[in-house]
Structures are given as C-alpha cells and as structure tokens.
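Hi there, hope your week has been kind to you so far. Do you reckon you could talk me through the fold, stretch by stretch? Thanks so much in advance, here it is.
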Amino acid sequence: MIRRTVFDESHEAFRKLARGFAERELVPHFERWEEDGIVDRSLYEKAGEIGLLGVAAPVEYGGGGEPDFRYSAVRIEEFARAGVLTPGLGIGMQADLAMPYFLKFTNSEQKQRWLPGLCSGKLVSALAMTEPNTGSDLAAISTRAVRDGDHYLLNGAKVFISNGIMADVVIVVCRTGEGGSGGLSLIGVERDTPGFERGRNLKKIGLHSQDTAELFFNDARVPAANLIGEENHGFRYLMDGLAQERLQISLGAVAQSEVAFDETLAYTKQRHAFGQPIASFQNSRFLLASLRTEIDIARVFVDRQLAAHVAGELSGEDAAAGKWWTTELNFKVIDSCLQLHGGWGYMEEYPIARHWRDSRIIRISGGTNEIMKEIIGRRVLGV
C-alpha cells in the first residue's frame, strides 16, 4: 500500500478511537440491525459520548471544536475496515451531511436549541431533498411551505430519506418562492410537528440496517422560527454542501474497495482449485495486480481531494469527478472480487456478498453518476 501524508498524529489518535468504537459498538450488533432494518437509537448517544457526532461543532455546544473534515474521513475508513459501513452511514448523515447546515446557516437561537442534542446524540437528524418525482433535479422540488402568521404550512412528500424513521429534526428542502432553483428554502421540521408523518421504512437491495423512509407533510404547521438561513436561498446552501457529500461518498467507495480487496486476497491464498491456491493462477494474479494498482491510484486521488477540501479549495466539479470515478471503480473492484470467490461469493455468509449489494447505491446517491458526468462536461465545454 502507498504511504499516505494527509493525516497527522491527532487524526491517527482519532483513528484508534473510531476503530475501538466500531469493534465495541457496531460489530457485535450488526447482524441484528441488518435483520431489524434499523440500528438501536442508543447508538447515537454512544457515538455522541465519545465525540464522533460533533467533531466540527463549537465546544460551547458540546462539540469538539475541530472543523477539519479529515476526522470524518478517518471515521469512514475505520467503519469500512470493520465491515460495518452501513450502520455508520446514519452517524455520517448526522456528522457530515446535516451538521454543516446547522453550523453554517442557523441563527444563535437555533444553535442553542439543536446543536447540543445533535452533538450528544440525544437528537437524530436527517436531510430531506429527494421527492417521489424528483431525483437529482433539485430545481424541480415541489414540496411547498406557505407563510401563515408565525408559522409555515408545509405540504408535500419526500422519499429515500436516510435516518428518516429515527430523526428528531429533519432539514426539509421546500419551495417558498417561484419555480426553479431560486425559490427553495430549508426548514427544520421537528418530530412532534402536527401534520408531519412518516411512511414506510423502505426495503432496499442493500444497506439494510440504515433506516430509509418516506416522509409526508399535510398542512404541517412549522414555526417560522425554524427557517434555516434566509428564504429562497436554499439552493445556494445545498450547493455549498454537495462537494462534501460527494467527497464523503468517494472516501467510502475507496475504503470499501480496499476492504473487499484485502478480504479477497486472503481468500484466494487459502482457497484451492485443481490442487493449487486460486491466487497462483495467472488470471488471478493479473486481476489482483490490476485492482491493487487502481485502488492505490484512487487513494492518492481522494487523499488529494480531501486535502483540497480542508483547504477550502475543492470545487463542486472536482468533487463530482471524484464521486463518479471512485464509485465506478468500487463497482469494478467488488464485482471482480466476488467473481474470484466463485459460488461462495454469492452466499450471504461471505462479506463480499454484502459489499456487492451494499455498494450499488453509491453510483446513484449524491447525484447519479450520469449527472456527475454532466457537471464535469459543462466545465470541460465552458458552459
């Protein structure tokens, strides 16, 4: 493996913390959570107790005061290394995707109200963008909030919402102005809001322990004080957060690829066919050599993007390029590793089968890879 230079001693100390948490709090319960379709709520409080949820939040709200995304990168890698990336996604949703909106765009009263609970894990958060008829096209969002005195009346539906079942406060992307991207706002909708209902915990191909919900708003009466930022500025806020979301996906894609490769390398060394280890066949050696090289290239690429993001220099187009390339490689690596397992790779008892089904979503989430290519293509053409 290549020598990495993006982390320092403090990140490596945090790595030990994250690794111990994964081994102690995730691995023993993982199979049960997969069957239940949801993790224990106590997981968030345990994560909060050791500082996994609020690393970037100010100390006065119970956070770590370290706005350095490299700590999140370490957590993503260690959860993947332990083979429990799925339950870690809910923690990542809270710490990496929802938390920045609470930190950057809320006012002082909202920070006092929400951040201590989000850092401690007593509050669980979600981000609701996708609608039944609206995927990657955020400008087509139709969920609408209409001002009614000191409240908004919110109507619409969301789907595929990670943490949707468990969430206590959901950042809802809704329309407060005219059509297109200019009329979108962000509103924090709390669990007990009248007119706010949860639908099914959706049954998915993979990521079974990550609750993924339908959300419905039927004249949901939300205090106007829950508006996050300014009205009709929501699209700009979302664009601000998408680079980090896509980098998070890239980090997970490379980490999972590394884990799948290491597991497969060990398998091919001990599994025999025709009187010799599978790894000794030329086809296996050549394939393993190719995959190892491409994973190393991806690791250098993503580490460079991580450093750029920490420096405030990662553009949305570059993050899109990373997300597209690493997730396509992830599929190639995992599918090839499954093939090297032969029939056993199709059996649930082998981790490679779970990697294969769990990884499929990352070419869709955070914007489909086709949308990523469109974003990159526009930059190439100067459109």
